[in-house]
Amino acid sequence: MTNANQISDQHAAGHDELPTNERDPILRWLHRIMRLAAYVLAIALVFVILVGVIRVLHTIYLNLIQPPYFLIPDIIKTFGAFLAVLIAYEIFSNIRLYIRSDVFPMKLVVATAIMAIARKIIILDMAEYSALDLVGMGVIVVGLGITYWLISLADRDAAAKEQPPVAASTLLPGSKTEENTN
């Protein structure tokens, strides 16, 4: 089954989270405002990403032209800046996917959270955090890893049954799914 077919199957199964063809005129109007807000966020995030890329390139350039030449003295902070731009790009991907399909991309959101916590751990200054803080970060990493694994299992099971991938709307109480709309 192709990705386009999966998206159309999601719409047919009632998985639109913000349908613009809602019967209630107030909800339809509010859904349109929320979709417009998603477009505005996407545009703003592109600007943030471009500024982030320019700042990373500028920092690298300044480090390369100053003595000692061709060395980046604080490589960990530079990696942190790279990862911050990549996280912003992942958030943009979340928004883009949401705009295209009206389905909240849970797996991508969890992957973005994993990348964000990984960035925090990579640039971590051990002197600033207590042992309890580090245990807390470890629990977050394990929890996100388990969540990602469970979503992957659900997606694999859905693919085996030739159903659309699991979306947030199928897991939220009171959401419209094929089972509870028939």
Quick description:
This protein has one domain (3-177). The chain has seven helices and no strands.
Describe this structure as you would to a colleague:
This protein has 7 helices and no strands. It is mostly helical. The longest helix has 41 residues, at 25-65. The two termini are 24 Å apart.
Task: Offer a few descriptive terms.
disordered C terminus, 182 residues, disordered N terminus, mainly alpha, 0% strand, single chain
| Oligomeric composition of the shown chains | single chain
The helix content, as a percent range, equals over 70%
Q: Biggest sheet, open or closed, and with what strands and sense?
A: none
Gyration radius, to the nearest Å? Answer: 21 Å
The class by helix and strand makeup works out as mainly alpha
Continuous helix count = 7
Termini separation: 24 Å
What's the overall average pLDDT, rounded?
A: 79
Give a count of the beta strands, DSSP E runs of length 2 or more: 0
